[in-house]
Amino acid sequence: MARISMRVDGMKVTDDVEPRTLLVQYLREGLGKTGTVIGCDTSNCGACTVHLDGDSVKSCNVLAVQADGCEVTTIEGLADTVEGDLHPVQEAFRECHGLQCGFCTPGMIMQSVDLLKRNPQPSEDEIREGIEGNLCRCTGYHNIVRAVQYASGHLATAANPRGATEEVDAL
Amino acid sequence: MTAVEARPEQTNEIGRDRRRKEDARLITGRTRWTDNINLPGMLHLAMVRSPFAHARITNIDTSAAADAEGVVTVLAAKDFDETLGVCINAWPITPNQKAPAHPPIATDRVTFAGEIVAVVAARSAAAARDAAEMVEVDYEELPAVVSLEEAVKDEVLAHPDLGTNKSALWVFDSAQAGTGGNVDEAIATARNDGIVIERTYRQQRLIPAFMEPRSVVCDPTGEQITVWSATQIPHILRFAFAATTGVPESKIRVIAPDVGGGFGGKLQQTPEEMIVFAMARRLGKPVKYTETRSESLLSAHHGRDQIQKLTLSATKDGQVTGLKVELDANLGAYVAIVGGGVPVLGAFMFNAIYKFPAYQFNCQTVFTNTTWTDAYRGAGRPEATYAVERLMDELAAEVGVDPLEIREKNWIKHEEFPFTTVAGLTYDSGNYEAATAKAKELFGYDELRAEQQQRRASNDPVQLGIGVSTFTEMCGLAPSRVLGSLDYGAGGWEHAQVRMTPTGKVEVITGASAHGQGHETAFSQIVADRLGVPFEDVEVLHGDTQIAAKGYDTYGSRSLVVGGEALVRAADKVLEKAKPIAAHLLEASVEDLEFTGGRWTVRGTDQGLAIGELATAVFAAHNLPDGVEANLDSEATFDPEAFSFPHGTHLCAMEVDTETGQVKMRKYVCCDDIGNIINPLIVAGQVHGGLVQGIAQALWEDAVYDDAGTLVAGSFVDYLLPTAADTISFEIDHTTSPSTTNTLGTKGVGEAGTIASTPAVVNAVVDALRPLGVNDVTMPCTPERVWRAINESSAGGETTGAAAAHFDPSTGMSGNVDRTEGDVQ
């Protein structure tokens, strides 16, 4: 067993884990962060995408021990959902019908947030390239691309708040 | 309840692009997938699966696994009695269909790679999986038959005891049925003085590949046995448990919680579900099994896998005179729950939107030592649509006219509806001219044809192809009488209940069980309009047999067409029950009441009562008319009289690099007539997703087996699901001719995109290459196949050989567990 400490969605945690434990297994089974899901076993689908120290990673491709000392953000910590707040990218997915069954959605949203952090005004091709590590079987990606475009527009409005009506968390 | 924004009076919910109710939990991770469920004392299962396609099990040694840390027990088939149940086939397509018994755990023989031979129960999923590796199974390999082409020869048998690989031959002949002429005569006539097109098309094997792997939890504690399963069919699953294990239905509760996609792939009673049920009962503890993706690709049912031999006869000017279909359909190792019925569903669709005077359909279902096949999005109809739409392009090329012209010459004209087809179905409504005109305009058809001519004239290495698909499908599965006439073992009605709560909210219970389609939103819209209550006040409950006690679940584009109509009827019954009570409370005569905008008013007065107020009054029951029960809740069961027939025109432009074989989608436009639309946002999503699944069949997906029966495409590394970078944005539009089979005028949209798009794409690829002498490219149209088609004047051939190279001894893979020494080539 190896002792690890990290901060997950704002909460400090320390646990003993088997060294082979994947980060996604630790999140789901150890911490009950079941919003993050497992869709494959070859790191192809991206359903388990979370942020590790602010960057998106496929949490099936990271050992829990590798996240020792890190800050992890999952879909559950992206916005203060208890208060009913949504992250602009979450809101965009709802607004643009960027999800159907919703299984890929946590990973897709986390990857899109990372994409927009790196490239706030992506072209359609850049969006498609930017989320190609995340598989969706329902939407055909059309409305996911629209959602990222929508979020990009709203984040730009928020950054340049002339006429902006809502506060948006800085990315 | 949060405050509802002020809404203008009398805004219809039907037709609004409501954002989905479901999304609030799905975008925040507040989801209940089956694998999320953890119960006190829960044990975890892992399956031991056969690496061989066909082998005798000579010994199973479980001792080392049973002794491993945290392992509770390791069991094989011999350790179970008949309470394990069996996997059922609900649709024996002929009275003499051959079907081997399908035990959830193989007894003495495995019949496909991936079949379960033993099960481990342990404290954790990891411990179970570790121990599963320690179970030692001795196999004596038997000859395996893998391909459909080999299986029909009956030389190597998938089930030697059956004496043949042939399960059933299902025939429809229009001359015999009295729905049309004799197809052999039509073909003979055309051979003398007309056109005969003969083609063989391959419908490759596909994997539904829903994003949520299947998971089952069973809790045997308490009086009822509760099962949670990632299934499309909780009601049918409960029936199957009861029918095959001896546990009464009243003791079984099946819940489909949040389910992450299905596409037909979760329309199954699985061995894993039966094993979890049995293990929970045996151990007296909650039990969970969640498959890995590899297990899912290997053992969850596959789709398609047909060889279509087609003969189309026509006059010299392109009027079709007959179509003969000889179909071999690969069942895999067992007849699945709908199994052989899937290709039979296609029998009614090969004639599509056309007025064919003679038609014959012959379907031979065949066993192989591969994963069993069953419904995948479209189920029989994509295969039929592909065949006929490819043939119509071939006919156009033969006659020398535009593919749309040959279609128009043969299709049913809008003034000819209702129209009874050569397959015996009556199409109630449609307008192929209107959908085609709209699609052409949106596409810029004439401009793209002009560009194609330029590229051809200039010998551009990148050629442009334009593909057409004018499809129709049958939706709203299904009229129970029709199902009965086809020997299907169940019905096709749907059930709904509308309950008024004391505070005036509405609970809607539906037997249709959604797994991503957006029923909660669309059904709320329907009921909100019907009862005149706010959209937000309607709660849709489904997917739990203890709440939604009756139903036939979700598949075959049936939820709205059948389930939606049941909902309308249940809501209307609420209003019928409420009316005399409203009259009593308003001290008016029933004849003087009007119901608008959720209120009863007395004509000529300002007196009125909202339905919510009435619900509260009925709850208190202080002042009801004599003899009237204190209950507004109502239910309805709707059994459709007929199918509905969505149709549409899909146009696809493909750029084909003739030097490399690479293909690139340039533009995709579709105009679908799906009748009246409840929620255009949800409809668009269904169309987009459907398109990509159909396009993926045309270009990428292929569940390839090697010669030994090992699934080469056994992970997402090898089974090529498209990504965002592989696909483009689509332009979609609609024409509307309402269906007459239900009062909402809806037709169903869940499968349309998948059914229509595959031939549109392949027609475009072939269209680009036709001047080079190419008239077919086998699916999926990989660059290699396209290149070979150009350079070798063939359809590109099989990829099986290339796939098998993974296991070539020269690659150092001879020690691979999937192969024995003697079997390596």
TrEMBL record, chain A:
Query: Locate the 2Fe-2S ferredoxin-type domain: which residues?
Result: 2-78
- Top-level taxonomic group: Bacteria
Q: Which UniProt keywords apply?
A: 2Fe-2S, Iron, Iron-sulfur, Metal-binding, Oxidoreductase
Pathway(s) annotated for this protein in UniProt? Alkaloid degradation; nicotine degradation
Tell me the Pfam families matching this sequence: Fer2, Fer2_2
MF (Gene Ontology):
2 iron, 2 sulfur cluster binding; metal ion binding; oxidoreductase activity
Protein name as catalogued: (2Fe-2S)-binding protein
Q: Native species of this protein?
A: Nocardioides turkmenicus
TrEMBL record, chain B:
Cofactor(s) annotated in UniProt:
Mo-molybdopterin cytosine dinucleotide
Q: What are the protein's UniProt keywords? A: Molybdenum, Oxidoreductase
Q: Where is this region: Disordered?
A: 1-21, 797-825
Q: Which SUPFAM superfamilies match?
A: CO dehydrogenase molybdoprotein N-domain-like (SSF54665), Molybdenum cofactor-binding domain (SSF56003)
GO molecular function terms attached to this record: iron ion binding; oxidoreductase activity
Aldehyde oxidase/xanthine dehydrogenase a/b hammerhead domain location is 28-143
SMART domains found in the cross-reference section: Ald_Xan_dh_C (SM01008)
Q: Give the protein name, as stated in the record.
A: Xanthine dehydrogenase family protein molybdopterin-binding subunit
Q: Which organism is it from?
A: Nocardioides turkmenicus
The root-end lineage is: Bacteria, Bacillati, Actinomycetota, Actinomycetes, Propionibacteriales
